[in-house]
Amino acid sequence: MVGAPSVKVKSALDYIEEACRIVADTISLVGQYMKPGMNTLEIDKIADDFICSRGATPSIKNYQVPWTTTINGKPRQLVYQYATCISVNDAVVHGVPSKDIVLQEGDIVSFDCLAYKNGYHGDSAYTFAIGTISDDKAKLLRITQEALMLGLEQATGRNKVYAISGAIQKHVEKNGFSCVRELVGHGVGETIHEEPSIPNFIPPLMHREQYPNVRLRPGQTLAIEPMVNAGKAKVFTDSDGWTVRTSDGKASAHFEHTVIVQEKEPPIILTLLR
After folding, report:
1. What is the pLDDT of residue 77?
2. Is residue 142 in a domain?
3. Tens digit of pLDDT for each residue in 119-152?
């Protein structure tokens, strides 16, 4: 469920900035462990411990989806048990950490992290290369990261949501890749998902009520996050009920920043790595 839109006052922005700094520092830390032989459960534990050491809590740990999901013919209320989502190669997002998922030379790994402190959430994602990766995967990571930055440039009070969407989609598709349709960026603050929704594509007319082209407002905090597939845009959810994978088995990349919208200038990026 998406929370109501909100423009934050300075005290709230200070709290969000602190949560975002914890997220960015967590991503920087786990980057040191993204190497062949590590399993994703070990990486999740490192992140969990670090977030808690900073006086925050992992936003998604024990997160319960507000709907019932059918898995293997049985209805289930899903509760996420881990601190982060770690998605390898063809896993787009929401990958469940596991001791059985051992990183290999040539993998790409999307690490999605949220932290909650003082009533506010920070949100960011980064896709890591494990050792030496193929030229195709390297291009996928580069184009996705470039698309994120091009989208961010449009996040000003002079623009509407689709300015972000169009900038991302244009760069992705002209380079031969595709933007996932089922998953989008969003506002973030007191809840993980707030208005507005920020698709990484300009929606067809029939879906514009779902993703309205609202004007951005100074003081909004947005999580902008291109999810880009090397092949087709279509995805499916794995049997675990969480992991979203590409339908054609090709690789996917995911980069995300939380930003503060300004009136005329480009947004302030709160989750830059240092």
Report:
1. 84
2. yes
3. 999 999 999 999 999 999 999 999 999 999 999 9
Residue type at 250 in one-letter notation: K
Domain span holding position 238: 10-269
CATH of the domain at 226: 3.90.230.10
pLDDT band at 176 (very low <50, low <70, confident <90, very high): very high
Q: Which residue has the tokens 């597939």?
A: 229
Q: Is residue 2 part of a domain?
A: no
Listed as own residue / partner, the contacts of 95-100 with beta carbons closer than 8 Å and 24 or more positions apart are: 95/40, 95/242, 95/243, 96/240, 96/242, 96/243, 97/40, 97/41, 97/43, 97/44, 98/39, 98/40, 98/41, 99/39, 99/41, 99/42, 100/39
For residues 111 and 255, what is the distance between their CA atoms, to the nearest angstrom?
9
Going by C-alpha positions, the residue among 119, 272, 151, 169 that lies closest to residue 216 is 151
Task: State both tokens at 22.
Answer: 């914890």
Decide if 274 is inside a domain.
no
Q: How far is 17 from 4, CA to CA, in rounded Å?
A: 20
Q: Count of domains in the chain?
A: 1
| Contact indicator for 193, 215 with CB cutoff of 8 Å | no
Q: What is the pLDDT of residue 175?
A: 98
